[in-house]
Amino acid sequence: MAKKKRTALWVTVGILGFIVILLLGSLVFVEVSIKNLDSSLDEKQNQVVAAFEARSKVITKLTGALKSKMSLDPEVFTEIEKAEKQLKSATDVKALSDANLRVDTAIDKLIYVMREKYYYLDNAALWPIEEDMDSARSRIVIESTDFNSVAKDYNYAIENFPGDFLSEIFGHVKTEAFQIVEYKDIRE
């Protein structure tokens, strides 16, 4: 009888041990998944910032082509410079989104003023720059959408069990999504 009790005890300990190992393995798997998503978020954010930098180069070309021709409206260019400066100093997603929106608003104002007051400018010379601007804006939308997709997965992982438990332990915090700007073709 004692042998049966010992055997039953070892079977119970073995089953409990297996369950504990299975639970710990699951927690490790979820934590590794969260860390991979976090790493992917960093990579995606860098790609969004690279898209902003590519657009910044186009903005430099556009403002260089227009600044001397639009000398009666220096505030338009000042606003672009301030917005670009804000974008370059932004580090988190919210600040990057806000600065991006400010840059786009300033660019749209430049295009509006150019068309309303300086309609006589040689548009053929500006078309390649405008095409580059549209391409840069499209890239920003693509990269921001990719970031937001990973951010959604990351936030889901850290807000649901067992990720929420692990977030308490390892300090994972919810991430913001990028604001996706609805761009109009600037050549319209």
Helical content band:
over 70%
Number of strands: 0
If helices are DSSP runs of H or I spanning 4 or more residues, what is the number of helices?
A: 5
Derived from helix and strand composition plus strand pairing, the structural class reads mainly alpha
Rg is: 27 Å
Provide an overview of this structure.
The chain is mainly alpha-helical and 188 residues long. It contains five helices and no strands. The longest helix has 65 residues, at 2-66. It starts with a helix and ends in an 18-residue tail after the last helix.
Secondary-structure blueprint:
Blueprint: H1 2-66, H2 74-89, H3 93-117, H4 123-159, H5 163-170
Short description:
By secondary structure, the protein is mainly alpha-helical.
Structure keywords:
188 residues; mainly alpha; 5 helices; 0% strand
